[in-house]
């Protein structure tokens, strides 16, 4: 029976509660809805769906599943029981293996099967994994290599060497059966290394360091060895032969190419003492953690939050004053980063983090026309209370597919890396470029916070101290909880922790109360905590006679922004010093303020009287301001006819040109020369177009982008809504599940048919089995053909036609049904 049909029967026999649990754990199975149980089984057996399911399994579940995969054969339907698996999983118990197999069956990754042929039926339950598991787990399940027979079949160079290798071993006195064909040689090698005792005897004469070398293959079958294809001969071995040559000469290592070798399955199994798994444990590892006081954790987190909000505010002001120019290839270059670092008085790596944070939160946006990053007008973030400003940043960070900590990291191997970026950034990721994108970032980020919360709760102490969590501790737990995602965690873990630190989710290396609330999807609790503990914002400064203002703490955002307009910030930390100068005062005057407004503002927000030197500076700078005026012009109109120019200036037909008279015979226009000339010609005039001068830079008004809406983080959806599940159950319970016309035949007209057909094709390819199929030709006629499938990929199948002694390639969509030809005569 087909594996998909067997799984379909298993699913159909389940209760509604069991199906609900399945849909909660694997929501992709009913998105979109399936019409029947056969389609559900086909979807559950699909490679992508199985891969997603495996990413959620912990280490014990993966170890049991991989052991089941190695002990069964889906082609011959050779199944395995919990008792059989327990003997191959060192440290396990029958109850534990049965419980894990039951959980895997609940996830539709395995299903009940008949006992192997010749096994008496008893109380034991036998299982088979889904057919696509072999493609998902890869060629080294449980870290074990391939068998000698498979290596002979797939490695032509080793197949040629295998017979000679066995002959050399036999002549040297090794008790090994002779062989005349590569397959016989493979079986002989397999038998020779089939037990731990036999391998121990073989290694007793090995050179020193051989055992140490083989220990490196304990968890993975492939290794890198220079000149791996060298052929050492037993007859020519000397006393100084190395471990690698010794192992290669006896076939205990098989060369794959010029630089890699593989440890065959039987050798790896014997090295593990005959067990597939020898590190089985149901309990997650408990890391050794340092501790910090609750006060230090709280103060560090609150200090980081206040400093980040201050720096983000200053950055937005700096970008508003001078938008960030981008490189031709995208992103912000080193020169702009240095400028911002000087303005904010921090180092460039931190500038990169803050730029990315502002970008992903929508606080700065790229204007495509001007190729610059700028602050949207009327930005809501600037006027929010500080705890809401913080939540805005955190929500955007949680949901973003950008990874701020990637800025400055090597760009080699990064998807989407361009030659322009490499040349411009010195082969490192630059801020606000495409290389900082990681689609899996939200899921990994959320999972890391959950692991931090789990470890913190497990290590809670009665004295109120908190555990200090480093990347190694989090990664150790992540590798146990989700081993299939370990590589993703390892590439992002340190960056995520650094980003969480500047957002106050960590303090002194420990998860803060805010971080715990965010990990538990409770932002309201986080706002309450932050509102209670964050120092109150100040609305006054201390003006001093040396033309400075001292902020005695964290200033209100509106006050800080206004001070930055009329003074330059100096120093770091909350007690910022603002220095007034003629240039900074002119900046405020250019923004439309006059001396009286500036002095009134200073008197309102100063805890002391306005010093006389500062008052003189403001009044004197304002008195000289505006004697020269600078405007916008893109073209000019010059004519000796003063009356004609005056008529043109006052006439309504040329209003769109923005004309201004700057001399009796000269007008300027805000439109470029060609546009101005075109309008003048439409008025019956004949202007000459003078473009001999250098082109005038047109300063135009950029259309204001919409102010960003406040980001609201929603956790990645992990389960469908109850209403969706119930609707799916109603469909499944009231529709027949049959999609096959008779046993062994797949009809290609339903959703499950494609998977059924592919399953039949792949099984026939592995078994070199003939199949019978109905193929529709170009005229729409169905023809019954008996062929041998050779390979299938890309929606096409390559077949051998025995009747015509030829090979052909057929499109799968032209196949109506398919069945094994051998089954026709049974």
Description:
- By secondary structure, the chain is an alpha+beta fold.
- It contains 33 helices and 26 strands.
- The strands form 8 sheets. It has a 6-stranded antiparallel sheet with strand order 21-26-22-23-24-25, covered by helices on one side.
- Strand 12 and strand 13 form a beta hairpin.
- Helix 5 crosses helix 7 and helix 17 crosses helix 18.
- The protein starts with a helix and ends in a 6-residue tail after the last strand.
- Mean pLDDT is 84; it is low at 413-425, 693-707 and 736-749.
Give the termini distance in whole angstroms: 14 Å
Count helical runs: 33
Q: pLDDT under 50 segments (min length 5)?
A: 413-425, 693-707, 736-749
- Helix fraction, binned, reads 40-55%
Largest sheet: 6 strands, antiparallel
The rounded Rg comes to 37 Å
- Decide which structural class fits the backbone: alpha+beta
Write down how many β-strands occur, each being a DSSP E stretch of 2 or more residues.
26
Strands across the major sheet, in which order? Answer: 21-26-22-23-24-25
Strand content range:
5-15%
* Global shape: elongated
Average pLDDT value? 84
Topology of helices and strands:
Blueprint: H1 3-12, H2 16-25, H3 37-45, H4 47-54, H5 59-71, E1 80-81, H6 82-86, H7 94-106, E2 110-113, E3 126-129, H8 133-137, H9 148-154, H10 156-171, H11 182-192, H12 196-203, H13 210-215, E4 222-224, H14 243-249, E5 254-255, E6 260-262, H15 265-271, E7 290-292, H16 294-321, E8 324-325, H17 334-344, H18 348-360, E9 365-367, E10 372-374, H19 386-399, H20 419-425, H21 441-458, E11 466-468, H22 471-481, H23 486-502, E12 506-507, E13 510-511, H24 513-519, H25 523-533, E14 542-544, E15 548-550, H26 557-566, E16 568-570, E17 577-579, H27 582-590, H28 595-605, H29 612-624, E18 635-638, H30 642-650, E19 660-663, E20 666-669, H31 673-682, H32 722-733, E21 745-747, H33 753-767, E22 771-776, E23 782-793, E24 796-801, E25 806-811, E26 815-820
Antiparallel strand pairs: 1-3, 2-3, 4-6, 5-6, 7-11, 8-10, 9-10, 12-13, 14-15, 15-17, 16-17, 18-20, 19-20, 21-26, 22-23, 22-26, 23-24, 24-25
Helix pairs in contact: 1-3, 3-33, 5-7, 9-10, 9-11, 10-11, 12-15, 16-26, 17-18, 21-23, 21-24, 22-23, 24-25, 27-29, 28-29
